[in-house]
Amino acid sequence: MYNQIINKEKKIAVIGLGYVGLPIALAFARKVSVIGFDINSDRIEMMKRGVDPSKELVLEDFQACDIHFTSEIEELRMASFYIIAVPTPIDNSRVPNLKPLFSASNTVGQVLEQGDYVVFESTVYPGCTEEDCLPILEKLSGLKLGEGFKIGYSPERINPGDKERTIEKIVKVVSGSDGHALNVISDVYKLIIDAGVFCASSIKVAEAAKVIENTQRDLNIALMNELSVIFDKMDIATHDVLEAAGTKWNFLKFFPGLVGGHCIGVDPYYLTYKAKKLGYTPQVILSGRRINDNMSKHVATKIVQILLKQEKILKVSNVLVMGVTFKENVSDIRNSKVADVVYALKEFSVNVDVVDPCASSEDVEKEYGFSLLNKPDKLYDAIVVAVAHDDYKKINSDFFVSLSVGTPFVIDLKNIFAKEVLKDFIVWRL
Question: Which residues belong to the active site?
Fold first, then answer.
């Protein structure tokens, strides 16, 4: 299989061309022949023109690539090595939504042939690949694992907005259904991963490794968020405390903040879901999730308390929220906890305007029910800098003065402004 791929006798197909799948597909397409598949035909047409719908890649990234973009299932029959990289979100009840993954497995199962490989990259709970996806592949293809085809799991490690740690520079964990499968899958990924690959002992181990990477970050941030609530009651600046504690060599430098997006705020629920299925209710993980999920309400409540101390009338108070994406310098608004801050403020009858240089107003309105302003258009009683976009880091004190009613009240959630910039302002930070 490996030799046939590098000689372009067999093709790699990537199913799901979002922020994970498209970079993988293009990276392979610079080395071998690739089919890029997505069910969204509009997105396919954009990629054919060298446009990344996720706005992560530029035209040059599409050049010198041997790739065929399609939304036609039948065209996948030309491939022999399938990589599934579709989203794995949670529903409103915080239960894993595996419909996209099962749909992708269904698609591949229809075209799977003798000797093919299927590798999953989507984040799942341990056991999902073999217990839930494999039966779909076997049923639809009529083939059996080992005799007819092989599978593997290689968790994605794409970091949106990071131009330094690109896919080639991040160690890739790989696993396979047997030793031979592991060797082939490892060799294939080595074609594009300069940092090297790590061979996990089993598919379940690789799945578990992925899900705890973000669970660990979630818990550490939850601790910082809880500390920030405590220190706020003590009138202590959390970042000053962390700066002092950070002088110890083994102190881990995490910071408080809103935990949204499609990874850190989602992946722990995959692990806790599986744990509950096995009869164990996680304590620490779910506690961390509760803390992080409640931070938006905490932020909104604190803003309202300070406005009331200034004798502001809430129903005529205007608040500007700067940034709605889940992290800095990306267009992705999925699971934005900033949106929850907006909702909470509106529940207090505060008037809220939102701006973001990276996000699409149309996407925000479709997802959250409110639109973005092109630019602030009035004077504000409070200004919330919610996302650390590079554009915002260039802002000086005059900007806040020009948009404020009286003395500026600035909520710097990402702690991006030096104390000198906000000198003589009313300031609140996590």
Answer: 263
